[in-house]
Amino acid sequence: MAKQLFTVENYMLYLASTSPRRKELLQQIGLQFECLSIDVDESLLEAETAHEYVARLALSKAQAGLVSLGQQRDAWVIAADTTVVLDSHIIGKPQSLTQALAIWRSLSGQKHRVLTGVTVASHHQQKTQIVATDVYFRALSEQEMLDYWQTGEPQDKAGGYGIQGKGAIFVQKIDGSYSNVVGLPLTETAMMLREFGVKV
């Protein structure tokens, strides 16, 4: 029997994030939506892999978004979580210059992976997908790392850099989705929305 999809006639689309980067990406493909400020515990669980981590957080954010909307039956929520992984270790957001320098020294001249878990959910159904992009950094000098910290750009970003900003000069090449590195893989997100009958 063919899979029957839930068809959406009238709906409200929400982004469970206040990230300006994710907002701009969704606007880029013409979607109209409202942003939700969601607070979930982002602590890594014991023995949890990076793939499990981003998938769990994306789903948790989507579910929290639906809860915040109450019983609004026509609501669809997009949620995502992005992390940087080097040799199976999750690289978080630097809280200090010392942390940032340690991160950049480890990424300098190396390949790392950016993982994003994306969930599209309603009260009727939900789907989570994980997208991976390999990013190659050129060798970085100590001075340019110090200069980059002074721009204020790295502090709120996984891996301590923004590929869509000044951090682009660190990136030699990528293998995979560019928008995934920014914070939301557009192709996969759009395909999930279409699968559920949301017009993209």
Structure described in brief:
The chain is α/β, with parallel strands linked by helices and 200 residues long.
Question: Could you name the key traits of this structure?
Answer:
200 residues; alpha/beta; Maf protein; 7-stranded mixed sheet; 6 helices; 32% helix; disordered N terminus
Total discrete domains: 1
> Whole-number average pLDDT?
92
**Radius of gyration of CA atoms, rounded to a whole number:** 18 Å
Indicate the overall shape: elongated
Number of helical elements: 6
List the uncertain runs: 1-8
Distance between the termini: 27 Å
Tell me what the CATH architecture is.
Alpha-Beta Complex
Q: Which structural class fits the helix and strand makeup?
A: alpha/beta
Largest sheet: 7 strands, mixed
User: H/E series, N to C?
Assistant: EHEHEEHEEHEHH
Strand residue percentage? 15-25%
CATH class: Alpha Beta
How much helix is in the residues? 25-40%
How many strand segments? 7
> What is the CATH topology descriptor?
Maf protein
What would your notes on this structure say?
A hairpin with a 4-residue loop joins strand 5 (111-121) and strand 6. Strands 1, 2, 3, 4, 5, 6 and 7 form a seven-stranded mixed beta sheet that branches. The protein has a single domain (12-195), classed as Maf protein. Helix content is 32%, strand content 24%. It has 200 residues and is an alpha/beta fold. The model is unreliable at 1-8 (pLDDT under 50). 36% of the residues are buried.
